[in-house]
Amino acid sequence: MNLSQIISFHARYRPDKLAVVFKDTRLSYKEFNDSCNRLANALQAAGIKKGDKVASFLPNSLELLEIYWATAKIGAVAVPFSP
Question: Domain of 7: which CATH number?
Answer without folding.
Answer: 3.40.50.980
